């Protein structure tokens, strides 16, 4: 929504309110720090600051005065959000990390059609001044002059957190930053903060709100009201939720906008429950910049939370913002769904305003989306910086129609491959959401002891049968790694780990020396004689693949090296029959079932790859999970706690906010339990 603007707080008014003006060298506010989930009396304080925190603009008294004087501080006129050059159209700002220690604000100035010109350098840091990965950035008009500004929390190694402001000059560039709020070490935890910007008290200046997650189920919103010159006063607790009915911040996606049209920006959120339900909530702003109790609205059991990103804008130009979700259906096509706020304060009125077919070629994880009125027609649009797989970077705009739906894509500025590093670009919006890591797809594997005489301790734990598949699934696995052997002369592909039949009833024989269903020592009918799967039989490759499909488990088959006795046999009849046993079951099922195959045998691997590709089964060679470092398996199993540090290091490398990584483990149950609460 276009917001009222004026140059706010003339000197005389500031004097009446007891507010201060000054240059960037003025003293910063000190922020009380939420070191624990506490009540109002224990709101964050530091030496020299009253309970609740104070700043240049005063504490509670200043908030009251600001709200009372609201009618006098905003005058007629309107401006689009984040208009950095004063031409009446929104622009986009980005924080660019050059990767050499210095950073810059880059401004994408919009054109009359809603496209963008080449980005200009709006401000540039010195080497080591800021760390992009330790910043939480928002855009807003913090001094109320109608020009878009930037604010950012910077977290430091010593535990400090400081709020900096870059005021827009009106030509697309920014003044040097100043700080107006700082939390001392040991109080605010930077990782627990989610920053949002909006005019929460309706005084014509955008404020900053921080959703603070204590980690024990308690959550609070703190509001920092913007004062003269874009400086922020002491924060105050503007909403809280106790552990009994608290939320998990990793399951929330936020956007800010004036959803009820009262001149104050509100907070909207999508919550993804562990049950799979998603629900919209509105936190309407109050006159003092605080927030009312949430109102729950639209919900669905058909959405996947991690496939939705939230945005806000007045797409139909009626003076009220809509909450919008960009939804990636996971099959190549995407849609943008808008929700209006009803008279009851709940989000509803679900409307699809954009639908992109799979043929459009867009991938949501290559988009960095910012809403704004980029063509100056009074309706908000969606724009994105898009990073192509070949290294190109481009701006794309979806302008709004009069009915609030979006036009097709408008391509504008483009950077050739190698000029911009897409991962180094941080587009700046008015809201943030915690980057929730998506839980990995675990592939379970049965452990085999290490050391001498391992077969004596082996408990035959491999999931080479329906029971093993079912147990791995019950532990949280989405797939398994299992073992493929060939009987004598490659006549039958069977699921068995060991070189011999040790672990099975009957006389011990090498698997490659016996027939499947003939001879005195045949393999068929033998059963496991030890361990958790005692009594289970040996299954053929086809039987096992069908069981995996029935249980919705993804099979990864390791072709054991012993199989090369027939697969690389000098007799072509034996060789071709053996390969048919391996490849035919895959070919028969791959159109309806994901199947992967590999081998650790370096002699066999080239032939496997060549054969698989020649049969048109190349998909079976990709998508494999990664194996991270774990404790070696032993019987009895070692304590899983010895893996925690190893899993943490691996998760930091593999965890993703856009896709579910595939990770293989021998400790499926323990790994899944360790991941609980670390991902969604």
TrEMBL record:
Signal peptide start and end residues: 1-28
Keyword Oxidoreductase attributed: no
Xref: Pfam families: FG-GAP_3
Top-level taxon of origin: Bacteria
Keyword Signal in annotation: yes
GO BP term, example: lipid metabolic process
Assigned keywords, A-Z: Signal
MF terms (GO), sorted A to Z: phosphoric diester hydrolase activity
Alphabetized InterPro entries for the sequence: FG-GAP, Integrin_alpha_N, PLC-like_Pdiesterase_TIM-brl
Name of this chain's protein: VCBS repeat-containing protein
